[in-house]
């Protein structure tokens, strides 16, 4: 664990301590891993002792841990609540564990707390992941004789800004939001678990550079774009979703000698900013090599264009 900003020792120790409750648990998989592709889970397991983090990147985790501890300390004292328990099942020859945040037996209600950003509310992109995690935990609880009739996520927005409520109609009305989760059948859950374990086993002996790549959805890729560009300008004249539209616009509205079409490939946001094991991933390695070549070519094009401009200036 690095300390790039030179935090004092007391702060470093607080930030760098092990926050994951299942770190020393004897398990093959945890519930949260089933929202990641199998190859990512494999790389994390394979290189867990090589992954380097800086304590400054852990601030969001610290906020989440603090809120969970507060809930556990407050609600765990009351008999009507069961808080922060980890349960296990065996399936497909593997041990799978899941830790729930809160279970209310009287209501048969399962709850998980998420400290996240307001954008989670505005764009609603996490519902499938929430449904998966909660259903897997429900399945594990059911195996231990605890029935679940309702599942909810409680989101706490760590960046909530009250002033934004009136400025943006999509912004959450308060710092907390309760989301109902959708139920999956037990058969669907079992299929998910068994398929994931099978996928993991099939690739477990492959070297890093031979692993299958994540899907575009798992890479959080933005859509491809095609920009109509003018030579010498950095900003696009117009940007289109497909090349035919870009070509048509250029043909009808632009000087063909002064313009060109720039393909802007989908950006693998997760790979670039959120993957702890990207440097071991064959897709990431190839992607970064391609980007390096593009930058070199752009620099070469700029050099050629400058040379042409100098020649024109000397001639005229």
Characterise this structure.
With 316 residues, this protein is of the alpha+beta class. 41% of the residues lie in helices and 19% in strands. The chain has 10 helices and 9 strands. Strands 1, 2, 3, 4, 5 and 6 form a 6-stranded mixed beta sheet that branches. The longest helix has 34 residues, at 282-315. The model has no long low-confidence stretch (mean pLDDT 90).
List keywords for this structure.
6-stranded mixed sheet, 41% helix, 10 helices, 19% strand, globular, 316 residues, alpha+beta, 9 strands
Question: Gist?
Answer:
By secondary structure, the chain is an alpha+beta fold. It is built from ten helices and nine strands.
Largest sheet: 6 strands, mixed
Oligomer: single chain
Structural class: alpha+beta
Q: What does the overall shape look like?
A: globular
Runs in which pLDDT lies below 50 for 5 or more consecutive residues are none
First-residue to last-residue Cα separation = 61 Å
Rg over CA atoms, rounded to whole Å, is 25 Å
